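Q: Got a minute? One more chain.
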Amino acid sequence: MKKIFFLILFISPLVSHSQTLEELYNKLVNKDKPVANKIQYKQVMNEIVTLNSTSNAFWKGGSSKTALYVKLPLGTVKWHYRVTLMDIRQNYSYNLNESLYSLLSNNHPLFVNNQTSLGVNFYIINDYARDDFYADRNFSRYTDYQNENTKGFNGICNLVYNNLMICLNNPNLKDGIKAIVEVVAYGNF
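A: Always. Here it is, folded:
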């Protein structure tokens, strides 16, 4: 009788009013088993940015550069990015089933549908280098993830810091450009 009393005394604080004995048993038995997170994709960024020509940036006060924060969710293992370029007067966008997120989630081949022959400089930096990037000073960047005068591309980045930025620079003297920047995280969410 004492054993039953101590067993009830031990179990009663663990049982909430809505738990059944089976749920309690499963909770106690599976207590030490790790919870399996699902490996999946998560859209982080899908932005259209405008980059003026370097002459407009100088004479009219526009900007030929932009720096975008990459806000990766906790559990990110790696992240994919795609940069699509178009002329400044165009308003192109991908269909929903052509977005980077949709292509990756459905295991479809990746593509870039560039709408211009112009190029852009692409860098991944930490946010402490942002001021140097904007001021045309020498700035720290991850050279493994750098593309200069490129016409749009996609890639994978294994850096998962919380202060990463994607930087774009339009080196063209007379033509402005628009860019669609997409980022999709891959990990345990």
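A: The longest strand covers residues 39-51.
Q: Perfect, thanks.
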